[in-house]
Amino acid sequence: EADIYQTPRYLVIGTGKKITLECSQTMGHDKMYWYQQDPGMELHLIHYSYGVNSTEKGDLSSESTVSRIRTEHFPLTLESARPSHTSQYLCASSTGTGAWEQYFGPGTRLTVT
Amino acid sequence: KNQVEQSPQSLIILEGKNCTLQCNYTVSPFSNLRWYKQDTGRGPVSLTIMTFSENTKSNRRYTATLDADTKQSSLHITASQLSDSASYICVVSDRGSTLGRLYFGRGTQLTVWP
Questions:
Q1: Which of A6, A24, A38, A42 to mutate to test the interface with B (most CBs of B within 10 A)?
Q2: What dihedral do alpha carbons A81, A83, A84, A86 form, nearest 10°?
Q3: What digits encode the pLDDT tens for the residues A38-63?
């Protein structure tokens, strides 16, 4: 079992609200990622980080933002939630060396009404 | 275009039976291929990782094969159990970037019936 945690697990929120999805890992991994996944579809990378103070946008355009102030913490923020943001958000981390393994958190299921 | 295609999209089998899931990819340059199991409402969990030189890798009742020449992989599940019901995702990594970009398939949804 990977030591990577996400909160909340489920969130239902109204349009226009600001939300922050939390992700923490206790493995000391430098690389962290945020993916978005819709039912029956592939995971899409929306943000990643090589380490503290490093953040990059992924392949899928997202209105969310991320920060990496501490190695273990990689929160994702939506300033103004919209129904189109309804999805599952998965956080992952890796050591980034060799045939490296990505460990995934349990995900946050976000519903914007 | 780098892509990962999986088949079948969904599969129903009876408990105790074997099954094989397929993955075809066009990712280049190839680094490694992984199979993940994703239970409903959970994050993916790694089953195997194979590099270019590995043809077969086993993890308990899961056996993955890789043919890097034809760019195909399969995941064979032996003596299926009810707990095997999940989505199985094929993921291919390239070695063309520092990040080691991952390309995800859409998964095969496996249902095991008693």
A1: A42
A2: 90
A3: 988 999 999 999 899 999 998 887 88
